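Example 9 (inverse folding). The structure is encoded as follows.
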């Protein structure tokens, strides 16, 4: 696929670091890229159609390139022109996805539903991604079994096939033990071409689920109820071509909201869908930050003189998103007072607390709860991003810290943020990406 570097042969992400000189205000307008978590699943959803699919507003991310490589390995034609992807799965005939790619990208596993719906057979390695906690695929498997698939997991491979002469899944009533986004999306894709009607109860309600439903419906699927806890899918025999635009990335937008708040900056963000950001906006307003909706897809952040402490509990949508927990921890680290953060979605997603403490934060972690006592100022230091959102939180903290912050682990950051360092530079932040060996030399020189 043209337009992005081959991630397998791109050492710059792994061997570079981000240097941030904090204390500079941000100003101007930031363009929010397309939603990572939508773009990836829409690419998988294109497998359902044997005609051309054009997807606009696709962010420039390492994860998008990995998903493109997965699709190419399955026999799909895919081309990139700027922020537009052209996908044609007419000759898609390979049911076995490559182990080395799927194990790096959890979202690629969700394609098992589309592969099974189109071919009647699928071999998908168990997924990988950021190490933020256990994310089993049992809900996906039980749902596919309810639709008539035979599924076995052996030697790290999920083998599934549909018995019978026509190889079509059958509509079923499925109840999810938890509102898993991945399971909801996998089963929704599988059901689009199934024989009969499928009902998914306790479905995930995230905006990305709605975006997938709208994408499938634009190809002729019959999906209703997306965005609620009950989704109905009436199976159709085939889907047709579409021209579709990915929704803006609510997590990128939320990250820039926290960046503006922590630097006491006035910032304009667009395009955004404010309804997707309600939990983050509400929490920022509770902390004293004023956010104005200037247009249907445009937000202005007004600085707060003093940031107030607040408590946060992560929950499935429409609750506070787990993907914003780390960035808000950075913000609460300099808020006035004590805050409590409860992480209820993933059990291993507070590892950034120790790195923030290296910057001078006062955070204690016990189990899935972080106790944050606000400090007057953070101080720059070398830190390591341990996952995607942790790396983003360290960037946010570094923008406010006195002196220089050096962040390693950019391979995580590049998975979910489209050229974040360049966007920050355009807003007036003093940020540069350099080779790790040069950063180590600079740190050693400063120490002497």
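The amino acid assigned to each position is listed next.
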């Amino acid at each position: 696929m043209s337009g992005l570097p081959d991630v397998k042969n791109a050492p710059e992400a792994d061997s570079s670091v981000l240097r941030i000189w904090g204390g500079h205000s941000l100003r101007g307008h930031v363009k929010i890229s397309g939603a990572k978590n939508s773009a990836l699943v829409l690419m998988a959803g294109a497998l359902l159609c044997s005609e051309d699919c054009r997807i606009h507003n696709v962010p420039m991310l390492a994860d998008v390139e990995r998903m493109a490589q997965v699709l190419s390995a399955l026999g799909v034609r895919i081309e990139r022109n700027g922020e537009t992807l052209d996908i044609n799965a007419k000759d898609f005939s390979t049911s076995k996805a490559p182990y080395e790619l799927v194990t790096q990208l959890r979202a690629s596993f969700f394609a098992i539903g589309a592969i099974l719906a189109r071919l009647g057979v699928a071999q998908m390695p168990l997924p990988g991604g950021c190490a933020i906690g256990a994310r089993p695929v049992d809900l996906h498997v039980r749902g596919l079994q309810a639709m008539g698939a035979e599924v076995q997991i052996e030697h790290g491979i999920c083998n599934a096939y549909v018995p019978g002469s026509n190889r079509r899944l059958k509509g079923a009533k499925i109840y999810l033990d938890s509102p898993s986004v991945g399971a909801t999306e996998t089963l929704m894709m599988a059901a689009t071409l199934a024989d009969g009607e499928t009902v998914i109860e306790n479905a995930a309600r995230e905006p990305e689920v709605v975006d997938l439903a709208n994408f499938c419906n634009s190809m002729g699927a019959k999906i209703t109820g997306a965005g609620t806890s009950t989704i109905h899918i009436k199976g159709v025999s085939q889907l047709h071509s579409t021209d579709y635009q990915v929704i803006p990335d609510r997590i990128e937008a939320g990250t820039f909201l926290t960046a503006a708040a922590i630097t006491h900056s006035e910032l304009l963000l667009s395009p955004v869908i404010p309804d997707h950001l309600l939990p983050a906006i509400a929490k920022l307003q509770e902390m004293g930050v004023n956010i104005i909706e200037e247009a249907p897809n445009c937000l202005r952040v007004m600085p707060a003189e003093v940031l107030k402490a607040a408590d946060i509990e992560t929950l499935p949508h429409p609750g506070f998103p787990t993907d914003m927990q780390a960035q808000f921890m950075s913000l609460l680290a300099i808020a006035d007072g004590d805050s409590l953060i409860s992480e209820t979605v993933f059990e291993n997603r507070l590892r950034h607390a120790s790195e923030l403490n290296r910057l001078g934060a006062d955070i204690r972690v016990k189990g899935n709860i972080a106790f944050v006592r606000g400090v007057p100022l953070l101080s720059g230091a070398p830190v390591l991003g341990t996952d995607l959102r942790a790396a983003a939180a360290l960037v946010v903290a570094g923008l406010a810290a006195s002196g220089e912050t050096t962040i390693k682990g950019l391979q995580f950051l590049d998975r979910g943020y489209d050229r974040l360092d360049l966007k920050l530079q355009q807003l007036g932040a003093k940020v540069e990406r350099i080779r790790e060996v040069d950063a180590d030399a600079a740190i050693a020189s400063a120490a002497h």
